[in-house]
Every structure is written in structure tokens, then in C-alpha cells.
Design brief:
By secondary structure, the chain is an alpha/beta fold. It contains six helices and 18 strands. A six-stranded antiparallel β-barrel has the order 1-2-5-4-3-6. A five-stranded parallel beta sheet has the order 9-8-7-10-11, with helices on both faces. Strands 13-12-18-14-16 form a five-stranded mixed beta sheet, covered by helices on one side.
Length: 319
């Protein structure tokens, strides 16, 4: 069960590209729970929506949390509510920090960020600078120079040769080709965060890299979910381990959607296999994992029901 506590909105500032900086602090003035690079918190909006946002900054002894929030006019309402309706001094419920995007040790790093996907990577780069580790490169993709949040902060942190900045000017024909950076597998780690299409491009080009060397996170920053085509899908059944109840899962429905239609209420956020909110225990059966965050070890006992399916007629799950 997720633990929530109240914070006060201290600042709300407009940045480039419809991105807003939100500064949250403890009403008591006490330090906040610490966090590691790549961590996020879940924010509960006043209207009851749940959204994940990466934490920016040094998480060792934080007296405030900084979030970068992209206002998605065509999204599902969470970012618009936070940006438009939250007032300075207002209380908001947040979770304790979690991290599904750990910055593990490596000799070399390649960071790939798209738009607001830069936020967790900012903390990673700051941490590497603090420990005097400079063997990394950042590819940062945005629509235009004027819509590139945190650029000035980045330029203070890293050298020009450590940054590849690309602007597509809103044209699909002008998107960056990642292949020259990904063609030759290296011993380092790749961290990718941004819109779903970009993340899928990177995943498609890194199948020949060592397992676990390419890490993804999105939190639904794209206004659309990852494609969930029903082509090739089959129907199956989910059995609840505790109750023994059986739930049919249709070919054109996710496990999450089907369970909700049958009266089972489970938490979710991104619904694109990238945030981990809908994680449940896998007891038995042959899963078809389609997420971006579980490694091979965790896939033996866990599954993200917003996007993954089953290769066997019955999947036994627990929640």
C-alpha cells in the first residue's frame, strides 16, 4: 500500500515548452524523505487523479522536492489540474519516493531524453558530476530551442562535447537517427526517458545490447499510450490466487481493463508499461511481458497488467 503525506506548494514557475517547475516543501519545515537519482513520487491531485513525476536535485537530505511538469492540454487531465488549479500555499498529497530507474554503476553512460523526459536524467547527471564521473553523453531531443526546458541548467553542468541537442521543429521527417549511437554495443548503460515513440525507437535499435544495459522510463509523458494492438493477441483467463475467482481477458482488452470491467479496482497511472503502479504478483502461467521496467529476474514473479498479456490459457495472479 502506497504511503502518502501532505506537502505545501512553495513555488510554481513557468519554464520553456509548457513545462512548469513545482517546488513542494514540508509544512512542518522538517527534512523530506531522501531519494536517489531516477526516483519519482506519485502526486494525488485535488480531484483524485494519480500522476508520477521524477524528482530533480540532490536527494540526500532534501528540504524540498522539485518537479518538472509538462502541461498536456490533450492528456488525461492531471497535469492541467496541477498547473492551472494548484495555488501557492495549497496542500497536496504525495507518496514517498520510489525508484524503478536506478542509476547503477557503469564506466560509461549514454542518456537519451525527449522533452520533459530530461527530468530524471538531470538528477543522474548532477550525481555523476558530484562524484567526479564525467564519462557520459546526453542526447536531448526537443521540438525547438525555445521549447527546451532546463537547457541553461544543463549547460552549467556539462561540457558542450557531452551534449547532442536535436530539434525536430515538429516534423517527423526531421527526427534524430539514433542508430549511429546504438549500432555498436558498449559495456556501459543507456538510460532513456521521453515520449513513447522515441522510447520504442531506442528499444527497437538495442536488441543486440546486453540484457539490462538499456533502461527505460516514461510515466506517460507522451499524450498517447504505447500502441496496444490486438493483432496476434489471444484471449485467456486470469485466476486470482487468493479468492480463486476467474476473470476472462478478451483479445482486444488489457488485463487491467478487463478486470476493471468485471468489478476489480486496481491502481494505475501511465498505462503504458513504464511506471510500475499496476504491478501485481505473478504466481504461475506463461506471461507475455511487454513492459519497459522489469528485468528478467523480476519478470519471474511480477507483471504489469496494463500492457502485458499471457501466452498460456490461464495466468494466476495475486493483488
Amino acid at each position: 500500500m502506497q504511503k502518502y503525506f501532505s506537502l505545501i506548494v512553495k513555488e510554481k514557475n513557468s519554464l520553456e515548452g509548457d513545462v512548469y517547475q513545482l517546488i513542494l516543501c514540508n509544512p512542518s519545515g522538517d527534512l523530506l524523505p531522501s531519494f536517489t537519482p531516477g526516483s519519482h513520487i506519485e502526486v494525488k491531485t485535488p480531484n483524485g487523479l494519480y500522476r508520477h513525476y521524477s524528482l530533480i536535485g540532490d536527494g540526500k537530505s532534501p528540504n524540498q522536492y522539485e518537479l518538472g511538469i509538462k502541461k498536456m492540454a490533450n492528456g488525461r487531465g492531471g497535469s492541467v489540474e496541477i498547473v492551472d488549479d494548484l495555488l501557492i500555499g495549497q496542500e497536496i498529497q504525495v507518496s514517498v519516493p520510489e525508484n524503478f530507474f536506478h542509476l547503477d554503476h557503469a564506466n560509461e553512460y549514454l542518456f537519451i531524453a525527449g522533452g520533459i523526459g530530461i527530468t530524471p536524467i538531470l538528477s543522474m547527471i548532477k550525481h555523476l558530476q558530484d562524484i567526479n564521473h564525467h564519462n557520459f553523453h546526453l542526447i536531448y531531443c526537443t521540438r525547438s530551442l525555445a521549447q527546451t526546458p532546463y537547457l541553461n541548467y544543463l549547460l552549467e553542468l556539462i561540457k558542450p562535447e557531452q551534449l547532442t541537442l536535436h530539434h525536430d521543429e515538429g516534423s517527423t521527417s526531421n527526427q534524430i537517427d539514433f542508430w549511429p549511437y546504438l549500432a555498436e554495443p558498449k559495456e556501459g548503460l543507456i538510460y532513456c526517458c521521453g515520449p513513447s515513440p522515441m522510447m520504442e525507437d531506442v528499444k527497437g535499435m538495442t536488441g543486440h545490447w546486453d540484457e539490462g544495459s538499456v533502461r527505460f522510463e516514461d510515466f506517460g509523458s507522451s499524450p498517447t499510450k504505447l500502441p496496444m494492438s490486438s493483432e496476434g493477441n489471444t484471449s485467456f483467463e486470469v485466476k486470482h490466487a487468493k479468492t480463486g475467482n476467474n476473470y476472462p481477458i478478451a483479445q482486444d482488452k488489457t488485463i487491467l481493463e478487463s478486470l476493471r470491467e468485471q468489478g476489480v479496482s486496481l491502481s494505475s497511472s501511465c498505462e503504458s508499461g513504464t511506471c510500475g503502479t499496476c504491478l501485481v504478483r505473478l504466481i504461475s502461467g506463461e506471461p507475455d511481458h511487454r513492459d519497459f521496467i522489469l528485468d528478467s529476474t523480476r519478470q519471474q514473479s511480477e507483471i504489469l497488467i496494463c500492457i502485458s498479456r499471457s501466452k498460456s490459457p490461464v495466468l494466476v495472479l495475486d493483488w
